[in-house]
Amino acid sequence: MNRIRLALAAIVLALAGSASPAEAGNVAAYPSPGTALASPLSNIAFNGVTRAGLGPVTVRGSKSGVHPGRVVAFGGPVGVAFVPNRPFYPREKVTVTSKRHRFYGTGGRRSFSFHTGQFLQTNLGSDPYSPARGQKPRAWDTYRTLPLKVPKVEVLTDEPGKSSGKIFYAPRANGPTILDENGELVWYRPGLRVTDFRAQTYQGRPVLTWWRRDTFGNRVDSKFEMANRNYKVFKRFGGGNGYTGDPHEFNLTDRGTAYVTAYRTAVVDMSRFGGPKRGFVLDYIGQEIDIETGLVVWEWHPLGNLRLNKTYLDIPRRNARPFDWFHMNSIHDDRDGNILISARHTQAIYKLNRKTGEIMWQLGGKGSDFRLGKGVRFGFQHDVQRQKNGTLTIFDNGAGGKHGRVNRFSSAKVLRLDMKRRKATLVRAYRNPRPVISNSQGNTRVRPNGNIFVGWGDKNACTEFAPDGEVVFDFTFAAKQVSYRCYKDQWTGVPTGPIAVKSAEGETGSRVWMSWNGDTRVANWRVLAGDSAGTLVTVATVPRTGFESTAHLDQPYGLFRVVGLSAGGEVLGRSGLNRLGRLTR
Length: 585
What we know:
Blueprint (H helix, E strand, L loop, with lengths): L1 H13 L11 E5 L13 E4 L3 H4 L2 E5 L3 E2 L2 E5 L5 E6 L8 E6 L3 E2 L7 E5 L24 E3 L6 E3 L1 E6 L7 E4 L7 E3 L5 E4 L5 E9 L2 E12 L2 E9 L5 E5 L6 E9 L4 E12 L10 E12 L5 E5 L27 E6 L5 E5 L4 E5 L6 E6 L6 E2 L9 E5 L5 E5 L14 E8 L4 E9 L11 E4 L5 E4 L5 E5 L5 E7 L8 E4 L10 E6 L4 E6 L8 E7 L6 E7 L5 E5 L5 E7 L5 E4 L3 E2 L3 E2 L1
Parallel strand pairs: 1-8, 28-32
Antiparallel strand pairs: 1-2, 2-6, 3-4, 3-7, 5-6, 7-9, 10-11, 12-36, 13-14, 13-37, 14-15, 16-17, 17-18, 18-19, 20-21, 21-22, 22-23, 24-25, 25-26, 26-27, 29-30, 30-31, 31-32, 33-34, 34-35, 35-36, 38-39, 38-46, 39-42, 40-41, 40-43, 43-44, 43-45
């Protein structure tokens, strides 16, 4: 009976498509050929081939035997995943054979192999980044219209030349926050413990994205979430292939995918490096996830591609907690279709061959392929990206707390690589106006007008620089817990929640306060007042002034309603009826 089932499974795979021979060719597959530590829960991704074009494929484990399964097409990029009906065994060799295609990274062969690793069932509480609960900032901004206590923002510099857009950050114990370009609050969601909060584009539409971690008793839930312009979550997914999603990267591509970081605790022989024979090591990997299906499109493991002694951390002699030797913290496409990643604990940037998984070059760290010019050296860095002009931008922390220090101050750096001479040159460095050393987190972003927008990680500050280094905008926020990154992007918020209104009797009349949490469109507020719902008339129109606006009326009216207006006078929303002295929302 088992032989019959296996034969039927093989027939199903053979019938997965009958493409013409012209469709046959080299295919990139993941886990990449030669991967030394894949998850036993892995699916096998085939990029650049349709379901009809895949042809017959056999998947065989050296211990677990032939694996039947199903072929699922990705929703975004061209490609498919083979989803086995059952997991592979730990520490076995898995061989994938195609009758139609040859595989990149094999020298033109029609088969490739990877090895599965052994992993702990839990991560031993070793989550490398866990937002704290119950932390209170030193100072709050408060509002009459909503019971919001927002970590206080202090704008220190506001000069001409700043770029347009909203500012996004998320103090990890308080909640995601959006400011306008002047530092005024736009949206705040208290109690939502998220990281890497920003605006991105998905299927041509602006969305908000973040990583979220929740605890339910003894169970920890870690998800990447996407919200629409109404602030409603419409997509939620985790790390793939049995890995736990990690907050260090959630980067959408124009292929309908997301680059994310993820991890599991692997059991690895560390004895050759002075560690335990059965060592617990974080397999800190990069994945590209197809957003529609949640399947892994691409995956890369540092273990097996780099030795443990590339790390700048001391290798432990015994297992106290899983060893976070690599600590991947950014993943981005390079201009040629290959991939750039940053690893904090090897203090290096790597360019990866997307098709084969091979390291094409390494910048910085132990064994750099480039000579580092004056001022280039970086350490414990974050957020590496290639710019349109060919330069690289990074956030150079310059220090890693107890793990050491390589520079006096943290800075955003622009680097130029000479590929022929294998030399890296510093184009410009941007320091905080109050020179700081940020021991963790941070990011560097180039704005459309050429400005540089920098989040200072654990220093709770964000700065925008003109290209020549002039500070055009700079602010701090009072949250006791840090924001991993700080972004500036275009965003139009259309909240579905109510307009909030508070009224009170004044010395000579009435005062009305109004706000609409998350709205970016209202330019003016129309205030209606009267003694009953049927007698309300317009008594004032006031400009929007930040998050909360105020109208001073010359009479103590008993009933109010406010209407939000666009700059052109279009009605965007109406509040409920508000009685004098009450809060309505």
